[in-house]
């Protein structure tokens, strides 16, 4: 996506079950979706970011029973935790939907059901099947392990027998295959697209979209005209993407803007729920005669020190504690810098610290501190004039060339939904600037200038300007990734707020105004001091008895 000046984009996270507190895997999805939304806003698209909580699952009911709480109280408490996580991570969401309490959601998902029923896509049948409560999904025996366990949770599914409403998924197999094959419905990365096509090729089975109200303990949204049934949590939850926009209500303007006519409709989801978003949800929309998402991006899982995140293993650390201890910038940086597009990644505080220290403290932080210190030492803290010919000093001019290539390099990476590749491109400018310090030796140029060499003085001006301008350009590009980090850098440069300006203008070389007096040099990213391993307390929090000390001042 280039520098857009018109159009809209709609970016969504999945909405998690709120049977427990959030873990670091939820943080990954929040941060990735926020990046994709911020990036589109920066490039000029009017963008809406949607997140929320899936309140109406049987998992939530069972969790409430185990805690001796009313279901409404449990989901309200836990949903608040997910919202607090998004806030702590600097996620700039436009709406946080709660499916149990938002009246517009109930109205909208009821309208969606009625539209599917009117199309003949829903009928009522007697059914007996294997149901995994953890997945909120029926499985066929061949989808289980050889021991008959759910491959995701390694638990034995319950045998459920009841009369339910079914969605006639099988009738949409051909159209789904065509849409995915042609790219009208893009599934990224390619491996997930192939997985979905293989799933369709094996033959789509109609699936149950309701539960008996008795088995659901009366919790959920009633099926229209049948109070004995509540909607299956996935039919209910998937509808949030349009009900949050007012579909099925009196005010459909957000729906028209961000779904019906939007330039892009992007779902950001985990690999465990691909079939729901890439098969079930598009089929439901086809039945209802509604536009489909344009892209489903599937991210991988985070493990913790090589193990799957699990409450029973005691490694489901609350990411809110990580943010409180290390800062949103450090956590966001790790999640975006370490995880390859669509792949699994392993999390540990030691890795977080190593990545933060190497990139932000050593590379970017040291570059800013050296450049600004030399500016204050050699030019009284005042940015010199932009050289008439940036290429006159080849090493300094090379930075301008790297900067000029960045927008396209970042755009190609972001089209692949690969933050790591995009940051590799940005870091080429950081690395080039650090090389310039070593090759140009500004301290030597200053000594020559003091000895009467006017050309050395001009070269020093060119080097100092190039270094500081490189830092400014890097900071602007970092805004969608780590907004708090970018803000600190731009503040020390005393750069004016240009967020209302077009993206191309903001990243064009020469934006740092000569005569600007920068703030005194202060190290912005002091190093994290942590042990080699992360220890989890029984509560799932961080064991502060073994945890290293955080030096204050982290973004």
Structure notes:
This protein has 19 helices and 16 strands. By secondary structure, the protein is α/β, with parallel strands linked by helices. It has 2 domains: 8-299, Rossmann fold, CATH 3.40.50.620; 349-506, Isoleucyl-tRNA Synthetase, Domain 1 (Orthogonal Bundle), CATH 1.10.730. The strands form 4 sheets. A 6-stranded parallel β-sheet has the order 3-2-1-12-13-7, sandwiched between helices. Strands 5-4-6-8 form a 4-stranded antiparallel β-sheet, covered by helices on one side. Strand 10 (222-223) and strand 11 form a beta hairpin.
| Strand portion | 5-15%
| Lateral strand order in the biggest sheet | 3-2-1-12-13-7
Estimate the helix proportion, in percent: 40-55%
Q: Distance between the terminal alpha carbons, to the nearest Å? A: 29 Å
User: What can be said about the biggest beta sheet?
Assistant: 6 strands, parallel
Let me know the number of strands.
16
Mean pLDDT: 90
At the first level of CATH, the class of the largest domain is Alpha Beta
Q: Number of domains in the coordinates? A: 2
Poorly predicted ranges (pLDDT <50, ≥5 residues)?
532-540, 542-553
**In CATH terms, what is the architecture of the largest domain?**
3-Layer(aba) Sandwich
Q: What's the quick description here?
A:
The protein has helices spanning 24-42, 58-67, 71-88, 103-118, 173-182, 190-201, 233-238, 240-243, 253-260, 274-288, 319-326, 328-338, 349-379, 394-415, 419-440, 442-450, 454-478, 483-492, 503-506; strands at residues 8-13, 46-53, 95-98, 122-132, 137-139, 158-167, 186-188, 207-208, 210-212, 222-223, 226-231, 264-270, 295-299, 302-304, 307-308, 345-347. It is an alpha/beta fold and 555 residues long.
């Amino acid at each position: 996506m280039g520098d857009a000046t018109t159009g809209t984009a709609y970016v969504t996270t999945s909405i998690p079950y709120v049977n427990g507190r959030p873990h670091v895997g939820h943080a990954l999805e929040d941060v990735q979706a926020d990046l994709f939304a911020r990036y589109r806003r920066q490039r000029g698209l009017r963008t809406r970011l949607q997140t929320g909580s899936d309140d109406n699952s049987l998992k939530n009911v069972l969790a409430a029973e185990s805690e001796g709480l009313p279901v409404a109280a449990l989901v309200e408490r836990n949903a608040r935790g997910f919202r607090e996580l998004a806030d702590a991570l600097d996620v700039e969401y436009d709406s946080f939907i709660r499916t149990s309490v938002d009246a517009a959601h109930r109205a909208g998902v009821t309208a969606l059901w009625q539209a599917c029923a009117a199309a003949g896509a829903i009928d009522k049948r007697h059914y007996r099947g294997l149901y995994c409560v953890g997945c909120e999904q029926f499985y066929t025996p061949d989808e289980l392990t050889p021991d008959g366990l759910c491959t995701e949770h390694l638990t034995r599914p319950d045998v459920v027998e009841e009369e339910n409403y079914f969605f006639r998924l099988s009738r949409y197999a051909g159209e789904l295959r065509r849409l995915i094959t042609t790219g009208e419905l893009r599934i990224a990365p390619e491996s997930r697209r192939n997985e979905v096509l293989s799933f369709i090729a094996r033959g789509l089975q109609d699936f149950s979209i309701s539960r008996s109200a008795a088995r659901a303990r009366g919790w959920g949204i009633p099926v229209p005209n049948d109070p004995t049934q509540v909607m299956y949590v996935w039919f209910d939850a998937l509808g949030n993407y349009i009900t949050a926009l007012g579909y099925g209500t009196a005010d459909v303007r957000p729906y028209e803007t961000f779904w019906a006519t939007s330039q892009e409709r992007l779902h950001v989801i985990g690999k465990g729920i691909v079939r729901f978003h890439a098969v079930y949800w598009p089929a439901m929309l086809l039945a209802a005669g509604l536009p489909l998402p344009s892209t489903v991006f599937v991210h991988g899982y985070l493990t913790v020190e090589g193990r799957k995140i699990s409450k029973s293993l005691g490694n489901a650390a609350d990411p809110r504690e990580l943010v409180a201890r290390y800062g949103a910038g450090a956590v966001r940086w790790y999640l975006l810098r370490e995880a390859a597009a669509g792949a699994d990644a392993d999390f540990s505080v030691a890795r977080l610290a190593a990545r933060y220290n190497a990139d932000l403290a050593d590379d970017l932080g040291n570059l800013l501190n050296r450049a600004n210190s030399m500016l204050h030492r050699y030019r009284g803290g005042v940015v010199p004039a932009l050289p008439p010919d940036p290429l006159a000093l080849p090493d300094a001019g090379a930075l301008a060339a790297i900067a000029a290539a960045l927008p396209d390099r970042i755009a190609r990476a972001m089209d692949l939904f690969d933050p790591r590749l995009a940051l590799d491109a940005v870091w080429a400018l950081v690395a080039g600037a650090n090389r310039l310090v070593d090759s140009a030796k500004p301290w030597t140029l200053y000594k020559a200038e003091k000895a009467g060499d006017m050309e050395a003085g001009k070269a020093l001006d060119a080097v100092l300007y190039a270094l500081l301008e490189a830092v400014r350009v890097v900071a602007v590009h970092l805004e969608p990734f780590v907004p708090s980090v970018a803000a600190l850098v731009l503040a020390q440069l005393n750069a004016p707020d240009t967020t209302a300006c077009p993206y191309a203008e903001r990243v064009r070389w020469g934006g740092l105004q000569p005569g600007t007096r920068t703030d005194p040099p202060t190290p912005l990213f002091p190093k994290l001091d942590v042990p080699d391993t992360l220890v989890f307390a029984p509560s799932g929090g961080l064991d502060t008895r073994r945890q290293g000390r955080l030096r204050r001042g982290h973004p």
